[in-house]
Amino acid sequence: MFKAISPSFRPRSALLWSLVFHSPPSDNKSSGDGDGDRGFTMFEVLIALMISFLFLTGTLNAMVMATVMRVKAERQAQAGYWIKEDLERVRALAANFNPSTNNGCSDSTVGAKFNTASAANSGLGNANNPETTTSARTILGRNASLSRTTTGANNVLQLTYTVIDTEIVNTLEDPDKNVIASLYTEVLPAAALTCGP
Question: Rounded to whole angstroms, how far apart are CA atoms 137 and 10?
Answer without folding.
Answer: 88
